[in-house]
Model the fold of this input.
Amino acid sequence: MSKHTIVLIPGDGIGPEVTHAAQQVINAAGVDINWITCPAGADAIEHHGHSDVLPDVTLDAIRKHKIALKGPVTTPVGKGFKSVNVQLRQKLNLFAAVRPVRSLAGVATRYEGVDMVIVRENTEGLYTGIENEIVPGVVTSMKVATKNACTRIARYAFDYAMKRNRRKVTVFHKANIMKLTDGMFLNCAREVHEKEFPQVAYDELIIDAGCMKLVQDPAKFDVLLMENLYGDLVSDLCAGLVGGLGVVPGSNIGEDVAVFEAVHGSAPDIAGKGIANPLACIMSGVMMLNHIGETIAASRIRDAYNQLLANSKTRTGDLGGSANTAEFTQALIDTMK
Ligand code: NAI
Done:
């Protein structure tokens, strides 16, 4: 019997390409995993005969086995089904998105020394897409914030900062305009800081100014705490500081379930061409291995991609190289040997 059972959700677009690469690298690192492949997204209906884009079989498998590695899933723009990601995070109560953003030696960017972690509230806010048409031509979108969820994510961020010896937690907010919702988010962060984590340095920035400061001097930031929609936007901005979406991993953490996935989406513009950068998904796999206690294998993979990027020109097109997904993956596996 395998030591670990992990649910694999290939997703769509470049999802199957990058999750396959991650699976190969994790297997090559010697971790004994029984992978259970489950569908999500339009693929679940079109190719697997399910009636839902997030079938019960997928949800039940994650609930049972606790850990999943997920590829991106396309969400139709301006019409169609509700985001699979929003549903997955809400149904499994994956309340914290954790997204490390780091400069990589050998990846040329405008900045050096970036080492941040975005902690994003993952279940509430405008991002959940609660919308209504009041009358034709008048629509609303509802932003919900609850004290429980705001306190829970603040506690998670401070606890994370403390346990990992991070320097500071910075809250990005817009409480000058959204005085009730973002005001509550801010008050909960202040309260958790004062009462539970006074030893962790804390500051707060109105998000527009925060974004300006991020692109001026990102190395000044450490843990960034924010609500759902801001976390979505700031994640891609921060990816741009360190080489792009191909190099930023992530996890969605719940009480006893965790789903690991890159920040990027299904990249329809390059899907099926075999040229996607699998690194963000592989890095998400490394986060997953650390989470399940396979720290030696996690370090092997991390050391290998650091070495490969720093000492060779082997990289995918998004990083200025000419390797395709399979070539980069094989070079990474060879570096681990
Ligand atoms: P995207 O992240 O898919 O792509 C943005 C740009 O980055 C594209 O030019 C793409 O080619 C490039 N890119 C992204 N990942 C890459 C990789 N690994 N290697 C090389 N290039 C990469 O964002 P977009 O276009 O806004 O969204 C496309 C679809 O993905 C939408 O349906 C969206 O809803 C969905 N999406 C899904 C996510 C998830 O399942 N976790 C997250 C973000 C978006």
